[in-house]
Fold this protein.
Amino acid sequence: MIIKILIVDDHQLFIDGIKSILSKSIDIETIGEANNGLEVLKLLEGGLQPDVILTDIRMPIMDGTTLTKTLSKEYPKLKVLALSMFDQTVDVIEMLEAGANGYVTKNVDKSELDLAIHTVVKGDYFFSANLPKDIQDWFHNESIPPDNQLLTKREIEILQLIVKGRTSLQMAKHLSLSKYTIDTHRKNIHKKLGIKSNTGLVNYALKNL
């Protein structure tokens, strides 16, 4: 079986580099490339059928997170690998929450990239070596919400700390996470519950947790 790949990045030199790496694999073929998420959707609408999409996160017009959310809804069988640098921890977590199947760093070598692609095709997650602490925490502590439960385990934990009046900095210290990760979770909690104020979150928690 030949695994078909679509590469998405706003830097052509990087796309060319990944294509060169993949050209040495006997069962992996690059069948398309795009410079942003919108171009990906147009290619898919035009009939392109990749098995895995390797996508950058920060791109103009449509970024990787928005693209991944759309793919999760409209093309749920597609596998998505995020391409990132280590200083994009919050972005990577947002990608995973959007439905990505893992991530590789932009200095990935052939053996790791091959392994990543084969791993996600099998239905498993893949993360580059030397995983940042916040992403390790996400992977080990987040879970698929049970039926009728909007929030993940971590989001419920943060909501409980909000009830106790903890600030984002206090939560970050307590949970050994970065403030940026805490703020991302808080934003997701507000969005999922449709509640704008912290007072509203407290009232929700007292009634439902």
Remarks:
- The longest helix spans residues 179-193.
- The two ends are 48 Å apart (CA to CA).
- Residues 146-208 form a domain with the Arc Repressor Mutant, subunit A fold (CATH 1.10.10.10).
